[in-house]
Amino acid sequence: MVSRATLFLVCAFEIALILFVAAWSAFADTASINNKNILRLFPICEIRSSLGQRCKYDFANKSPKDFLEACCPSGQKITFAENSVEVLSADNWLYRFDVTPLFGNFTEVIFEDKAMNGGSYHTVAKFIAHNNDGGLSLWKYWTTRY
Predict the structure, then answer these.
(1) Residue 9 pLDDT class (50, 70, 90 cuts)
(2) DSSP characters for 33-97?
(3) Per the confidence metrics, is the pTM higher than 0.85?
(4) Contact 123, 143 (CB under 8 A)
(5) Which residues pair with 138 in a beta bridge?
(6) How far is residue 131's CA from residue 107's CA, in Å, rounded to a whole number?
(7) Which of 76, 75, 139, 77 is nearest to 111 (CA)?
(8) Does residue 35 contact residue 99 with C-beta atoms inside 8 Å?
(9) Which of 12, 35, 105, 122 is the most exposed, fewest CB within 10 Å of its CB?
(10) Beta bridge partners of 101
(11) How many C-beta atoms surround the C-beta of residue 11 within 10 A?
């Protein structure tokens, strides 16, 4: 028969292990850039995009809390895939993020910005991204305008 002290120690160890895994998972998720957090982290008003005028006037004295606040004040449809997320604004603009982990805390982010409302604006930009304590640092290395 197992003593109460042994049973207590085994239960305490299992609880500590569960708490450690939960804390580690939460830390790892905030450190990585993925399709679930790119809309919160992406600094849209710091790059050139179709949202430039909105960023200039609506967010002149503050930053938007996330990408959706800047892009889609009238609403949006969001579609998640394994390594990507698409946002179709109520104004018929398509914004697509492809997120590919690299090494360390670095990630390749491909951002597509396309008018779906009959306009001709279509730009695809590639960035190397790094998560700095919840903020995203971007280095653009390629842009194509169609």
Answers:
(1) low
(2) --TTTHHHH--GGGS-STTHHHHHHHTSSS--SSHHHHH-TT-EEEEE-SSEEEEEETTSEEEEE
(3) no
(4) yes
(5) 129
(6) 9
(7) 139
(8) yes
(9) 12
(10) 107
(11) 10
* Nearest Cα residue to 81 out of 103, 101, 94, 97: 97
End-to-end CA distance of the chain: 75
Tokens 């805390």 — which residue?
105
- As given in the structure block, the two tokens for residue 113 are 């910005």
Is 13 in a helix, a strand, or coil?
helix
Q: Hey, CA dihedral for 74, 51, 63, 105, is it positive or negative?
A: positive
| Element holding 109 (H helix, E strand) | strand 106-115
